[in-house]
Structures are given as structure tokens and as C-alpha cells.
Design a protein that fits this description.
Helix content: 55-70%
Strand content: under 5%
Number of helices: 11
Number of strands: 0
Low-confidence stretches: none
Order of helices and strands: HHHHHHHHHHH
Largest sheet: none
Length: about 300
């Protein structure tokens, strides 16, 4: 379907620049040692603030009513996955720290650590997104991986609080394996990792917002709401990047249609995947034999 002229242009064109400016200010204050709190705390508060702003904007200025969060979708489907995601991320972060403490010196090392901070952050983001692109595309191609990743695509809605709805397998790949390789084994300094994480959190959060946010040519650089919604379109195989558009452009999977949105979100065939409201059945689905029938949907 095609989009109309923005009903609230201040929100459509102003939300992302506001969030980007706040993120930039916090990052600058952190790397110049002007914050009175730890970087982890700053990143956490920044993430919460971004979610609050995005949630408020999508309630005031929703893109499509049928993509709205409902009580049933949040409590009956999303909330258990959000709780599990929090636990898995904490365990993965602890695992990264323990492995890095054993094998990697503190403070960065090697050629990457000798680069200026902005260059380090760019290299980290390029490497991070290339690894995620490779895994993400495989997760849409390899049936066993799709059984895990499909839970993120099962909803026929798209809103900011469904962003953490992932199977633990996806989370362990992104938060442990990719994070360990990119943030620790690459030799990047803690400053570079912090900058990259701040950009990552902003783009991943804003990309799931159910609001008419427009960033124009910036879509050819960064993955956001206008491009990521096409990734969630039923029948679409595009825009696998998490932060950068580069790898999708390079591998010819990039789609940006500024005045159109997908006609339908979710799975190509919803009957081919367990109803994500069946939390335990969905978690077990990647581990079941291939010939196992899809669990009966919730009535």
C-alpha cells in the first residue's frame, strides 16, 4: 500500500534526528569522561529512553492501526520472550566477559586499537553487521535455523516492544558468538565497542517502530523503520542487515520504497510455524524432528 502525506510531519521527520542527537551527546559525554555513571548504566538508560520515546511516538502517530500492540499480543505472546531475552543476554554478556578475560588483554590490542576512535567504531560496525547478515540470511534459508528465527517473524504486527522477541538460539549467536568475535577478539578498544553498541541499540530499536518515520537518503546508509519493515513483509527476502545498509546493497538484497509499505507482515504460511503464544512449544520447535507436526494453535 502507498503512504499518504504525513499527518504529523514534526514526528515523522523529527523523531529520528532527536534520538540520534541524544545518542550522540551521551556517547560524546561517555568517551570524554563527562558522565557521572558507568558506561553500562549510560547505555542502559539510553536504551530505555529510546524505547520510551519510540513507544510514545507510535501510540500518538501509528503508521497502521493493524500493526498496533494489543494487550493480547504483548502479554499473551511477547512478554515471556522479552523476559527470557533479558536473562539470555545477561548470561551471554557474562560469558563474553569470562572468555575475554581468559584470552584477550584489556583495553584493545593490535592494528585496530591503533586507529582513531571513529575509524575503529566504523570497522566494528562493518564487521558486526557482516556477521549478522551472514547468520541472518542463513536463518531464513536453512530450515533448522529458520525454526528458531521464525518466532521473530511470526507476529503480523510490527512495534517497538516486539523487537526483543527472539528465540534463545538467535540471541546466543548475536549476543555471545558475534559479540565475542567483534567486540573482544577484534582488538577494538572499549570506547569503540561503546560507540558501536550505542549505534546498534538506536537502529535496532527504531527499526521496529510502528510509526511514519522518514529519514530520506539516510536509508542508504543505516537500516531503520522504512527499510526494516520490508524485512518483516510476508514473502519478502530483503534487508537482512541490523545496522548498515551496505551489505544488503552489496549482496543485492536491499529494498527501499519510501512511499510504500508491505501489504502484509508475518510468515508466508502462518500454519507452518507454531503459534508463538505457545511459548514452550515455540522454544522446543528447533529441537524437534523435522517431520514433527506443527503444534495446534491456541484457540
Amino acid at each position: 500500500m502507498e503512504l499518504d502525506t504525513p499527518a504529523r510531519p514534526a514526528l515523522t521527520y523529527g523523531t529520528y534526528p532527536l534520538l540520534a542527537a541524544v545518542t550522540t551527546a551521551v556517547v560524546w559525554a561517555a568517551v570524554t569522561h563527562r558522565l557521572a555513571i558507568s558506561r553500562d548504566a549510560a547505555l542502559g538508560l539510553l536504551t530505555i529512553a529510546t524505547i520510551v520515546v519510540a513507544f510514545t511516538v507510535e501510540r500518538i502517530n501509528p503508521l497502521l492501526d493493524r500493526w498496533r500492540m494489543t494487550r493480547d499480543s504483548f502479554v499473551g505472546r511477547d512478554l515471556p520472550f522479552i523476559g527470557l531475552a533479558f536473562v539470555v543476554e545477561q548470561v551471554a554478556t557474562m560469558g563474553v566477559s569470562l572468555v575475554a578475560a581468559r584470552f584477550v588483554p584489556d583495553g584493545g590490542f593490535g592494528p585496530l586499537a591503533d586507529l582513531p576512535l571513529p575509524a575503529q567504531a566504523v570497522v566494528v560496525l562493518l564487521a558486526l553487521d557482516l556477521l549478522w547478515y551472514a547468520y541472518h540470511r542463513a536463518a531464513h534459508t536453512v530450515p533448522r535455523l529458520w525454526r528458531a528465527h521464525g518466532v521473530h517473524h511470526a507476529p503480523s504486527q510490527l512495534y517497538v516492544l516486539m523487537h526483543p522477541v527472539f528465540h534463545p538460539i538467535d540471541l546466543l549467536v548475536s549476543r555471545f558468538v558475534i559479540s565475542l568475535l567483534v567486540f573482544r577478539f577484534s582488538g577494538a578498544t572499549p570506547d569503540a565497542a561503546f560507540v558501536a553498541l550505542a549505534v546498534l541499540n538506536l537502529q535496532q530499536t527504531i527499526s521496529h517502530v510502528n510509526s511514519d518515520l522518514r529519514t530520506g537518503p539516510l536509508n542508504y546508509l543505516l537500516i531503520g523503520a522504512e527499510t526494516h519493515r520490508w524485512h518483516h513483509g510476508a514473502g519478502e527476502r530483503v534487508n537482512y542487515g541490523s545496522v548498515l545498509a551496505l551489505w544488503d546493497i552489496a549482496f543485492r538484497t536491499f529494498v527501499y520504497e519510501p512511499i510504500r509499505v508491505p501489504d502484509r507482515l508475518g510468515l508466508d504460511d502462518p500454519d507452518s510455524y507454531p503459534d508463538p503464544r505457545r511459548f514452550h512449544a515455540t522454544l522446543a520447535w528447533p529441537l524437534r524432528p523435522t517431520a514433527t507436526a506443527v503444534p495446534t494453535p491456541v484457540e
